[in-house]
Design goal:
Blueprint lengths: L8 E4 L2 E10 L9 E5 L5 H7 L4 E3 L19 E5 L3 E5 L4 E5 L5 E5 L18 E8 L3 E6 L6 H8 L17 E6 L5 E6 L14 H8 L2 E9 L14 H15 L8 E6 L6 H13 L22 E4 L8 H38 L1
Parallel strand pairs: 2-4, 3-5, 10-12, 10-13, 13-14, 14-15
Antiparallel strand pairs: 1-2, 2-9, 3-8, 6-7, 6-9, 11-12
Length: 359
C-alpha cells in the first residue's frame, strides 16, 4: 500500500440509463439494415423524446425488373445513441458495445431477395426487441456510502455542481466532473449514487450504481473518517468497516471490479478527533486481515483492496484537495505507462514470433 501525502426504461430524475426499443430490418429485395451509431451529444432521453413509439424500421428493398436483375437495396435506418452504450437482446445476450464516437452495431438485418431455394419469394427483415444500457465512461468513479461526502468532494475537485445536503441520499443521478490541471490535462470523475449494504442484490440504487463502475478506469473510495450510520435502525460502521463493506459489495456484484487501481479519500478531517481516528484507520489498513475478527462473515471480503494512495481530506475546508488531485493524476499516469509498456512488449513478442516462423 502506497500513501501519497497524508421495466421499459429506468431513470432517476430526468436521467435515463436504460431504454427498450423495437427494431426491424426492411423486407427483400435486399431490405435495409438497422444500425445503432455512437454520436456525441446524444442521450437515451433524447431518443425517447424524439421517437416516443420507440420503433425503428429500415427501408424495403426494391423488386427486380427488366432494367435491374437485383433490386435496389432498401435504406438503412440509423439510431444515433450516446457513447458508452451496451446493446443486448431481450434475453440479455450482448449484441455489441459503443465505446467511442463513430462505433456502429447492426441490430436488425434486412431481408434477402427471392432465390431458387425460396421459390423466388423474398424474406422478411429481422425483427426483435433490443435494450440499450448506458454505462458511464469516466477516468475515475467515486465509490462510497451515502453521506460520505462524495458530492461535496466532487464540487471541490472540479466545476461540477452536484446536489449537496446534510442527509444521506443526495446523489440520485450520476454527475460527471472534470479535473483541470495547469498543463490543460483533463480527468473525468463520476459521482455515482451512494451504495447501501445489499447493493449487489439490487437494494437501494443497487445495479443502477454498480453498472456504472464497470467502465471507469480507476476507483476512488470515499469514507467518513468518523464512521457512518444510514439510519437510527442501521448499525454504526467505522471507516474501516465501511471500506470492507464497499469492497464486499463490489466483489459480490462483479469481482473483476476489484482488479481496477484504487485510491482512498478519507473525508471530513475537519471534525473532532479526526486525526486520532485517521491514525487508527491507517494502522488497520496496514494489515486489514488482522482486524477481520471485527467483521461478520457476511461483511468480510475475500481479499482487501490495496490502495495506491490514501489521502486525508476535508471537502468543507478544502484540506488535502490539491494533494488528492495530484494523486489521482499520478495514479492514472502510472496506469497509462504500465499499459503502454505491456502493449510494447506484446508487439515485440509478436514480432519475434513472426520472425521465428519465417526462418
Amino acid at each position: 500500500m502506497v500513501r501519497c501525502g497524508f421495466p421499459v426504461l429506468r431513470k432517476y430524475g430526468s436521467f435515463i440509463d436504460n431504454l427498450r426499443i423495437y427494431v426491424r430490418g426492411g423486407s427483400g429485395g435486399k431490405g435495409g439494415d438497422v444500425w445503432v451509431v455512437a454520436q456525441d451529444g446524444m442521450s437515451l432521453k433524447k431518443i425517447k423524446d424524439k421517437y416516443p413509439s420507440k420503433r425503428f424500421v429500415a427501408g424495403v428493398g426494391a423488386n427486380s425488373s427488366i432494367r435491374s436483375l437485383k433490386g435496389v437495396k432498401g435504406n438503412d435506418c440509423e439510431i444515433h445513441a450516446p457513447v458508452g452504450i451496451s446493446i443486448t437482446n431481450d434475453d440479455g445476450q450482448v449484441i455489441g458495445e459503443l465505446n467511442k464516437k463513430g462505433d456502429r452495431v447492426i441490430v436488425a438485418h434486412g431481408g434477402r431477395g427471392g432465390s431458387f431455394v425460396t421459390n423466388f419469394l423474398p424474406s422478411k427483415g429481422q425483427s426483435r426487441i433490443i435494450r440499450m444500457d448506458l454505462k458511464l465512461v469516466a477516468d475515475v468513479g467515486l465509490v462510497g456510502f451515502p453521506n460520505a461526502g462524495k458530492s461535496s468532494l466532487l464540487s471541490q475537485l472540479s466545476h461540477a455542481k452536484p446536489k449537496i445536503a446534510d442527509y444521506p441520499f443526495t446523489t440520485m443521478r450520476p454527475e460527471i466532473g472534470k479535473l483541470m490541471y495547469s498543463d490543460y490535462k483533463q480527468i473525468s470523475v463520476a459521482d455515482l449514487p451512494g451504495l447501501i449494504e445489499g447493493a449487489h442484490l439490487n437494494k437501494g440504487m443497487g445495479h443502477k450504481f454498480l453498472k456504472h463502475v464497470e467502465r471507469t478506469k480507476q476507483l476512488l473510495f470515499v469514507v467518513d473518517v468518523t464512521g457512518f450510520q444510514l439510519s437510527y435502525k442501521a448499525p454504526f460502521r467505522t471507516a474501516f468497516e465501511a471500506i470492507q463493506l464497499l469492497t464486499k459489495e463490489l466483489e459480490l456484484y462483479k469481482a473483476e471490479l476489484l482488479s481496477k487501481p484504487a485510491l482512498l479519500a478519507v473525508n471530513k478531517m475537519d471534525l473532532e478527533n479526526a486525526e486520532e481516528k485517521f491514525k487508527e484507520l491507517m494502522q488497520q489498513l496496514q494489515k486489514p486481515e488482522a482486524f477481520y475478527h471485527l467483521l461478520t462473515e457476511e461483511m468480510t471480503p475475500l481479499r482487501p483492496v490495496q490502495f495506491h494512495h490514501i489521502i486525508p481530506v476535508s471537502a468543507s475546508t478544502k484540506y488535502g484537495i490539491e494533494e488528492l488531485k495530484n494523486c489521482i493524476r499520478k495514479s492514472l499516469d502510472d496506469q497509462d505507462d504500465l499499459e503502454n509498456e505491456q502493449y510494447r512488449l506484446e508487439k515485440l513478442q509478436s514480432l519475434h514470433s513472426s520472425t521465428f516462423k519465417c526462418t
